[in-house]
Amino acid sequence: QVSELVQFLLVKDQKKIPIKRADMLKNVIREYKNAYSEIVNRAGRTLQEVGGARQGNGRVLGGHTPRALTLFLLQVFGLQLVEIGIKPHTYILINNLPRAEGECLCRDKEKEKMGLLLVILSFIFMKGNSVKDSALWEFLHLLRVYPGKQHRVFGDVRKLVTEEFVRQKYLEATPIPLTDPPEFKYQWGPRAEKEISKKDVLNFVAKIQAKDPTFWASQYSEAEAKP
Amino acid sequence: ENREAMLNSKSNRLTEALEEANRLFDGVCRAREAALDAQFLVIASSIGKEKANELHSEMSAFDSTAFAEDLLTFMGINRTEVEEADDSEDVPGGFLPSDAWQTVGEEALKYFRRAPTFHYMMGSFKSEPPVPKQRIERQKKASRGKAERAMPAQLKKMEESHQEATEKEVERILRILQTHFEDDPNTPISFFDFVIDPNSFARTVENMFHVSFLIRDGLAKIKLDEDELPIIEPTKPSGEGEEDSRAGARNQVVISLDQKEWK
């Protein structure tokens, strides 16, 4: 019965759109209630055997739950269920560890999108955590990526960046007041905050530019400050 | 309108504009003018804030143009060949290979803690449900063995339907397995005969995926026969003995099958 809830989460996660707690409960509550005591027992046993596994700092499904569920996801799939919003309660699934080298089971499309995303996140971070859309597109222009032009790899890039990445909570777009036509500023979204660290991003930039991360003093101290 | 010009850190235009506004305000006696003045102040402060942001970036010495060039290098750009010129002059010449973004992507994956997505579930509705390959002697019993096909009449919401589809598939496969065994309890089924769809590699992978749920839930088990080939059989329903039936070794098995092997 636990597997049904897990299945539900995995299917929901396919599109990387956050999962609402209400949906989780609506879909699996009956199976879940029956299995609850068993889950708790099993989780308790496992906990003893393993000697306590690392648990995510996000709350999951409210008070009386799923330390069991969290534990199950972690132990069986190596996944963490993390809360990214409170009104309404919203969750995402992330990996407990970054993927080891050569382990990728994903398709090329996914890989390429993640590449573009990393580049965008790097640009935003290095520019002080917030950039205007015009500045972002000006930068992507240098990489032969244009908002008005169909891209050989990404297709409709404008849609990918302003809709898909935003919907998946990798990016956050906020309108800038009193701009006409309306302009937006872009920042890291809550999924980005959970799935990648500023330190990682700085290391990426450093690698690309063959410099030491400390070269960029203020970004370096900001990256080190994050827990 | 001159936002960009005002943003230029070397420009004093913002200051000049503010000073002029001050001068003008002395002559204001009507409400409309005062409102304009207020509006101007809001815009001015917004520009001021942006300028402050820009300053911060400059101090950190991040050169986005250099970053872009280094990225292109990382992606494997060939600068000796010059492509047809784009309109803009600041696009550097050079030939970008088709796997440019894959190269970045490979690197990116090392940093993201992204949960893997199970894509093959998406294929459940596309073609007919799989027909597990049967032994020749069993063909007469085949019609009895086929469970009802999954009937996805409407797709209300894609996500829900996919979950149901997976559950239905798993159940359906279990029923097929059980029916085979009712007919002939002593002849085990070769695992590969069971999962391989001779017409579709994707289907085969999906079958293996669905069978893995049965195994994990203890509804079926895989053993090795005398030839060391895997065979699959349903487990007997055990009531409360669930813990006991799982006392058998829980192993993790990775089966890899590529298209060549499948062929």
UniProtKB/TrEMBL annotation, chain A:
<dbReference type="InterPro" id="IPR041898">
    <property type="entry name" value="MAGE_WH1"/>
</dbReference>
<dbReference type="InterPro" id="IPR037445">
    <property type="entry name" value="MAGE"/>
</dbReference>
<protein>
    <submittedName>
        <fullName>NSE3 protein</fullName>
    </submittedName>
</protein>
<feature type="domain" description="MAGE">
    <location>
        <begin position="1"/>
        <end position="223"/>
    </location>
</feature>
<dbReference type="GO" id="GO:0005634">
    <property type="term" value="C:nucleus"/>
</dbReference>
<dbReference type="InterPro" id="IPR041899">
    <property type="entry name" value="MAGE_WH2"/>
</dbReference>
<dbReference type="InterPro" id="IPR002190">
    <property type="entry name" value="MHD_dom"/>
</dbReference>
<dbReference type="Pfam" id="PF01454">
    <property type="entry name" value="MAGE"/>
</dbReference>
UniProtKB/TrEMBL annotation, chain B:
<dbReference type="GO" id="GO:0030915">
    <property type="term" value="C:Smc5-Smc6 complex"/>
</dbReference>
<dbReference type="Pfam" id="PF08743">
    <property type="entry name" value="Nse4_C"/>
</dbReference>
<comment type="similarity">
    <text>Belongs to the NSE4 family.</text>
</comment>
<dbReference type="GO" id="GO:0005634">
    <property type="term" value="C:nucleus"/>
</dbReference>
<dbReference type="GO" id="GO:0006281">
    <property type="term" value="P:DNA repair"/>
</dbReference>
<dbReference type="Pfam" id="PF15412">
    <property type="entry name" value="Nse4-Nse3_bdg"/>
</dbReference>
<dbReference type="InterPro" id="IPR029225">
    <property type="entry name" value="Nse4_Nse3-bd"/>
</dbReference>
<dbReference type="InterPro" id="IPR027786">
    <property type="entry name" value="Nse4/EID"/>
</dbReference>
<comment type="function">
    <text>Component of the SMC5-SMC6 complex, that promotes sister chromatid alignment after DNA damage and facilitates double-stranded DNA breaks (DSBs) repair via homologous recombination between sister chromatids.</text>
</comment>
<dbReference type="GO" id="GO:0006310">
    <property type="term" value="P:DNA recombination"/>
</dbReference>
<keyword id="KW-0539">Nucleus</keyword>
<keyword id="KW-0233">DNA recombination</keyword>
<dbReference type="GO" id="GO:0000781">
    <property type="term" value="C:chromosome, telomeric region"/>
</dbReference>
<keyword id="KW-0227">DNA damage</keyword>
<comment type="subunit">
    <text>Component of the SMC5-SMC6 complex.</text>
</comment>
<feature type="compositionally biased region" description="Basic and acidic residues">
    <location>
        <begin position="134"/>
        <end position="149"/>
    </location>
</feature>
<feature type="domain" description="Nse4/EID protein Nse3/MAGE-binding">
    <location>
        <begin position="37"/>
        <end position="90"/>
    </location>
</feature>
<protein>
    <recommendedName>
        <fullName>Non-structural maintenance of chromosomes element 4</fullName>
    </recommendedName>
</protein>
<feature type="region of interest" description="Disordered">
    <location>
        <begin position="231"/>
        <end position="263"/>
    </location>
</feature>
<keyword id="KW-0779">Telomere</keyword>
<keyword id="KW-0234">DNA repair</keyword>
<feature type="domain" description="Non-structural maintenance of chromosome element 4 C-terminal">
    <location>
        <begin position="188"/>
        <end position="263"/>
    </location>
</feature>
